[in-house]
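SAMPLE LOG
Freezer: B-3
Tube label: C17
Construct: single chain, 255 aa
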Amino acid sequence: MGKLSLLIVDDDPLARDRVKWFMRSQQEIVVAGECSDGLEALRLIRSLRPDIVLLDVHMPLCDGLQVLAKLSSAERPSIVLSSAQQRFAIDGFKECVIDFLLKPFDRERFDLALDRAAQNVVMRRARDLVAKVEHIVSAPSLHQKGRLVVRIDGRVVVLRSEEIYWVEAANNYSLIHLAGTERLLVRETLSSLEKRLGTEDFTRINRSAIVQVDQIRELQPSKYGDYLVVLVDGTRLPLKRGIRRRLAEFVSGEF
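STRUCTURE (predicted):
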């Protein structure tokens, strides 16, 4: 993660200079800009999209609380509110600010507020990432892109279709067999994976197994007129009678 950005909003130039002096010791946060009134603050928040805003309450044209009221939840960065009057702390926390700084504040108190704001940014980014992953994992177009995205122990794993040899059911889980002996256990049913893999490159051969068509080496007769599907790596899987016709679409000849 790159450095976070801070916007300083205060109508007192000495107060802004004091904050910039405090910021000289910061390693992970940089000052993206500064301004002295609420209307300019709104413009800069929307154009610069800073991660954190140090926002004074008393300003001309539009005060700090009015700035908060005009920002949508999507526009709002992590806000640290500041004022020389303690009573504004309650109003600030009602607006879900991360912290409130009572002026005059020292470097130690400023650093604590900035650290809280930075942690909030990190947690929010993590939530956004999880939401994006959820969208990717559930996207119906994954098979069209020739890939399968799965979650495993908190990790997000992207598999190419050709990497997947076969998949077997394991109750509410599925075991994905890859090249060699590598296997991945995912918390997703076989039916769900079947839909996401599609039927162009994969086919179900019985209630508990889906195979990649290109991995089928041969079909061997077994007892009672049944067949075994033999994969390139030597794996033998039973072929359900009712699926023979479906499998015949992928192999040449009759059986």
